[in-house]
Amino acid sequence: MTKKESFFINRIKSIKYAFKGAVLLISTESSIKIQIFIGIIMTIIGFIVGLSPTEWILQTLTIGLIISIESINTAIEEIANFIHPEYHPKIGFIKDLAAGAVFIFAVIAIIIGCIIYIPKFF
Ligand SMILES: Nc1ncnc2c1ncn2[C@@H]1O[C@H](COP(=O)(O)OP(=O)(O)OP(=O)(O)O)[C@@H](O)[C@H]1O
Predict the structure, then answer these.
(1) Binding site membership of 45 for ligand 1 (Cβ less than 6 Å)
(2) How large is the ipTM?
(3) Are 56 and 46 a contacting pair, CB within 8 Å?
(4) Residue 116 and residue 58 in contact, taking contact as beta carbons nearer than 8 Å
Protein backbone atom coordinates (compact mmCIF):
# COMPACT_ATOMS: atom_id res chain seq x y z
CA MET A 1 0.00 0.00 0.00
CA THR A 2 1.38 3.43 -0.94
CA LYS A 3 1.72 6.22 1.63
CA LYS A 4 -1.05 8.18 -0.15
CA GLU A 5 -3.46 5.18 -0.10
CA SER A 6 -2.87 4.54 3.61
CA PHE A 7 -3.51 8.24 4.30
CA PHE A 8 -6.95 8.03 2.66
CA ILE A 9 -7.78 4.66 4.28
CA ASN A 10 -6.86 6.08 7.71
CA ARG A 11 -9.05 9.14 7.09
CA ILE A 12 -12.00 6.91 6.11
CA LYS A 13 -11.42 4.79 9.26
CA SER A 14 -11.37 7.97 11.39
CA ILE A 15 -14.73 9.04 9.93
CA LYS A 16 -16.11 5.54 10.65
CA TYR A 17 -14.97 5.71 14.31
CA ALA A 18 -16.31 9.26 14.68
CA PHE A 19 -19.68 8.18 13.25
CA LYS A 20 -19.71 5.21 15.66
CA GLY A 21 -19.04 7.69 18.52
CA ALA A 22 -21.93 9.91 17.42
CA VAL A 23 -24.28 6.89 17.28
CA LEU A 24 -23.09 5.79 20.77
CA LEU A 25 -23.70 9.27 22.18
CA ILE A 26 -27.20 9.50 20.69
CA SER A 27 -28.20 5.96 21.71
CA THR A 28 -26.76 5.85 25.25
CA GLU A 29 -26.52 9.38 26.71
CA SER A 30 -29.74 10.85 28.06
CA SER A 31 -28.21 14.36 28.24
CA ILE A 32 -27.43 14.18 24.49
CA LYS A 33 -30.94 12.86 23.73
CA ILE A 34 -32.42 15.85 25.62
CA GLN A 35 -30.17 18.32 23.74
CA ILE A 36 -31.15 16.77 20.40
CA PHE A 37 -34.84 16.89 21.36
CA ILE A 38 -34.51 20.60 22.27
CA GLY A 39 -32.64 21.16 18.98
CA ILE A 40 -35.50 19.55 17.01
CA ILE A 41 -38.13 21.64 18.89
CA MET A 42 -36.14 24.85 18.22
CA THR A 43 -35.84 23.90 14.53
CA ILE A 44 -39.64 23.43 14.32
CA ILE A 45 -40.20 26.78 16.08
CA GLY A 46 -37.67 28.32 13.68
CA PHE A 47 -39.82 27.21 10.72
CA ILE A 48 -43.01 28.47 12.41
CA VAL A 49 -41.65 31.97 13.10
CA GLY A 50 -39.69 32.11 9.81
CA LEU A 51 -36.08 32.73 10.78
CA SER A 52 -33.83 34.70 8.43
CA PRO A 53 -30.78 32.92 6.91
CA THR A 54 -28.50 34.61 9.48
CA GLU A 55 -30.79 33.56 12.34
CA TRP A 56 -30.82 29.98 11.00
CA ILE A 57 -27.00 29.97 10.89
CA LEU A 58 -26.79 31.27 14.48
CA GLN A 59 -29.42 28.83 15.77
CA THR A 60 -27.89 25.82 13.99
CA LEU A 61 -24.41 26.75 15.19
CA THR A 62 -25.68 27.13 18.75
CA ILE A 63 -27.50 23.77 18.72
CA GLY A 64 -24.43 22.06 17.22
CA LEU A 65 -22.03 23.62 19.74
CA ILE A 66 -24.23 22.71 22.72
CA ILE A 67 -24.39 19.07 21.59
CA SER A 68 -20.64 18.99 20.86
CA ILE A 69 -19.65 20.53 24.20
CA GLU A 70 -22.04 18.18 26.04
CA SER A 71 -20.45 15.25 24.18
CA ILE A 72 -16.93 16.34 25.17
CA ASN A 73 -18.17 16.69 28.77
CA THR A 74 -19.49 13.11 28.58
CA ALA A 75 -16.11 11.89 27.28
CA ILE A 76 -14.28 13.69 30.12
CA GLU A 77 -16.67 12.12 32.68
CA GLU A 78 -16.01 8.68 31.16
CA ILE A 79 -12.22 9.17 31.34
CA ALA A 80 -12.51 10.38 34.96
CA ASN A 81 -14.68 7.37 35.93
CA PHE A 82 -12.26 5.00 34.17
CA ILE A 83 -9.02 6.31 35.67
CA HIS A 84 -10.49 6.81 39.16
CA PRO A 85 -13.87 5.16 39.82
CA GLU A 86 -13.67 5.92 43.57
CA TYR A 87 -14.44 9.28 45.12
CA HIS A 88 -11.59 11.80 44.83
CA PRO A 89 -11.72 15.59 45.24
CA LYS A 90 -9.56 16.04 42.10
CA ILE A 91 -11.98 13.92 40.02
CA GLY A 92 -14.84 16.04 41.38
CA PHE A 93 -12.90 19.19 40.44
CA ILE A 94 -12.24 17.91 36.88
CA LYS A 95 -15.90 16.94 36.40
CA ASP A 96 -17.05 20.30 37.78
CA LEU A 97 -14.77 22.12 35.28
CA ALA A 98 -16.18 20.08 32.38
CA ALA A 99 -19.75 20.71 33.57
CA GLY A 100 -18.87 24.41 33.92
CA ALA A 101 -17.93 24.52 30.22
CA VAL A 102 -21.38 23.17 29.32
CA PHE A 103 -23.03 25.68 31.67
CA ILE A 104 -21.16 28.67 30.17
CA PHE A 105 -22.27 27.84 26.64
CA ALA A 106 -25.81 27.00 27.80
CA VAL A 107 -26.07 30.57 29.18
CA ILE A 108 -24.75 31.94 25.86
CA ALA A 109 -27.29 29.76 23.98
CA ILE A 110 -30.15 31.19 26.08
CA ILE A 111 -28.91 34.74 25.36
CA ILE A 112 -28.73 33.98 21.60
CA GLY A 113 -32.24 32.48 21.78
CA CYS A 114 -33.57 35.60 23.53
CA ILE A 115 -31.95 37.91 20.94
CA ILE A 116 -33.52 35.90 18.08
CA TYR A 117 -36.98 35.18 19.53
CA ILE A 118 -37.93 38.09 21.83
CA PRO A 119 -38.42 40.53 18.88
CA LYS A 120 -40.55 37.88 17.12
CA PHE A 121 -43.03 37.50 19.96
CA PHE A 122 -43.07 40.96 21.60
N1 LIG B 1 -15.42 10.23 41.66
C2 LIG B 1 -15.83 11.41 42.12
N3 LIG B 1 -15.13 12.04 43.07
C4 LIG B 1 -15.54 13.25 43.52
N5 LIG B 1 -16.63 13.91 43.10
C6 LIG B 1 -17.36 13.34 42.14
C7 LIG B 1 -17.01 12.05 41.61
N8 LIG B 1 -17.93 11.73 40.67
C9 LIG B 1 -18.78 12.75 40.62
N10 LIG B 1 -18.46 13.73 41.49
C11 LIG B 1 -19.16 15.00 41.70
O12 LIG B 1 -20.52 14.83 41.28
C13 LIG B 1 -20.80 15.69 40.17
C14 LIG B 1 -21.66 14.94 39.17
O15 LIG B 1 -20.89 13.90 38.61
P16 LIG B 1 -21.44 12.87 37.56
O17 LIG B 1 -20.35 12.04 37.02
O18 LIG B 1 -22.57 12.11 38.18
O19 LIG B 1 -21.92 13.88 36.47
P20 LIG B 1 -23.38 14.16 35.95
O21 LIG B 1 -23.37 15.59 35.52
O22 LIG B 1 -24.41 13.72 36.95
O23 LIG B 1 -23.36 13.16 34.73
P24 LIG B 1 -24.35 13.08 33.53
O25 LIG B 1 -23.90 14.17 32.59
O26 LIG B 1 -24.09 11.70 33.03
O27 LIG B 1 -25.74 13.28 34.10
C28 LIG B 1 -19.44 16.11 39.62
O29 LIG B 1 -19.50 17.36 38.94
C30 LIG B 1 -18.58 16.13 40.86
O31 LIG B 1 -18.76 17.36 41.56
Answers:
(1) no
(2) 0.88
(3) yes
(4) yes
Domain ranges of the chain: 3-121
Q: Does the C-beta of 96 come closer than 6 Å to ligand 1?
A: yes
66, 35 Cβ separation under 8 angstroms = yes
5 appears as a binding residue in the annotation: no
Is 2.40.50.140 the CATH classification of the domain at 3-121? no
C-alpha angle 73-30-92 in degrees, rounded to nearest 5: 40
| pLDDT tens digits along 63-110 | 999 999 999 999 999 999 999 999 999 999 999 999 999 999 999 999
Q: What is the tens place of the pLDDT at every residue in 12-60?
A: 999 999 999 999 999 999 999 999 999 999 999 999 999 999 999 999 9
